[in-house]
Amino acid sequence: MAVSPTIRKRLEIQGFCNLDDATLTTAEPWLRFTPALCAAIVAAGTVVSAEWVLFALVPIALLGAVLPFHTFDLIYNLGIRWITGTGSLPRNGPPRRFACAAGAVWTTAIAASFAWGPAVLGYALGGAFAATAALVATTHFCIPSLIYRSLFGWDQAATAKP
Fold it and tell me: Which among 28, 73, 140, 157 could disulfide-bond with 69, CB atoms 3.0 to 4.6 Å apart, if both were Cys?
């Protein structure tokens, strides 16, 4: 079954452009994996006020900002896809990498709030981050990617093929 026009548009906002229907249909469910894992880790770190968990996530997010893939994508590309018999994920375009950079800054703020106070700010920021990442994981609607598009437009959006 083909990806709906709404989901295709949301993925294009994230920088997954110029992908044929077959590639997008196969990749679409697995493009939820990384944001879901980020949401789960931040939620868990927030619930238990574990700044070390959150600080540990920062370099992972930074790598997602500078590399054409997120470190968590490797879990799928090097493991899960061989079990499922599916193709590799397409490379992350600038909007999704921008979202990773925003996530690194945001996660740093959460961790710093737990480490040095006020903890209530950490809970608020952590809850908001987890909700934002869960939104991407469930609907492919990525607020940081939308901010990127608002700032830089659509011209810089092309994603390399998988």
Answer: 73
- Radius of gyration of the CA atoms of the chain, in A: 16
CB burial readout 111-135, b (16+ within 10 A) else e: bbbbeeeeeeebbebbeebbebbbe
Q: What is the pTM of this model?
A: 0.93
Q: What b/e readout covers 11-31, taking b as 16+ CB neighbours within 10 angstroms? A: bbbbbbbebeeebbebbbebb
Angstrom distance (rounded) from CA 50 to CA 78: 29
Taking alpha carbons only, the member of 117, 158, 129, 110 closest to residue 39 is: 129
The string of pLDDT tens digits covering residues 56-107 is 999 999 999 999 999 999 999 999 999 999 999 999 999 999 999 999 999 9
> φ, ψ for residue 102 (rounded to 5)?
-60, -40
Report pLDDT digits (tens) over 19-65: 999 999 999 999 999 999 999 999 999 999 999 999 999 999 999 99
